[in-house]
Design brief:
mainly alpha, Ferritin, binds hydroxy diiron-OXO moiety
Length: 164
């Protein structure tokens, strides 16, 4: 059985993962309309992953005797200020998500909920990977400067393949 505090923090994370999915979907759609097909593809895939993260929380809460609530989601922005800034925004968002995962780890320990503590470790590892993956994209974008976006757009999915 889930303690109420744990049920609440896990439900809050449903909203955060769902918003992540919508944010990356909005970014993907924007990139698509700007002609960056490769970057859009990377972001669409990211949006799907976030949806999967959200679902994991829904199933876990219910499995533990809680009630997963589907929340309202804030509308993400529709326009973005260029590719470099977009990925900076992705990194900042992932850092925010990592800190909310850390809060869950801390609360699970405080409440002696070792099942949740054990389960959430998957997300701890996932966040390390997500931040590293976006950071490596930002590093490559720095190397390229504003030029060669065509090549970057063409190659970004191969980058994903080698990191996942
Ligand atoms: Fe769900 O990891 Fe990103 O937000």
């Amino acid at each position: 059985m889930l303690a109420k505090k744990i049920e609440k923090i896990l439900n809050d994370q449903i909203e955060k993962e769902g918003y992540s999915s919508n944010l990356y979907l909005a970014m993907a759609s924007w990139a698509d309309t700007e002609g960056f097909a490769g970057i859009a593809q990377w972001l669409f895939a990211q949006a799907e992953e976030e949806l999967m993260h959200m679902m994991k929380f829904v199933h876990f809460i219910n499995e533990r005797g809680g009630h997963a609530i589907v929340p309202a989601f804030e509308q993400p922005p529709a326009k973005f200020d260029g590719i470099k800034k977009l990925f900076d925004q992705v990194l900042k968002h992932e850092q925010y998500i990592s800190s909310s995962i850390n809060d869950i780890v801390a609360l699970a320990l405080k409440e002696n909920d070792f099942a949740t503590h054990n389960w959430i470790q998957w997300f701890v590892t996932e966040q390390v990977e997500e931040e590293a993956s976006v950071q490596s994209i930002i590093d490559k974008l720095k190397m390229l400067g504003d030029k060669n976006m065509y090549m970057f757009d063409r190659d970004i999915m191969t980058l994903r393949g080698s990191e996942k």
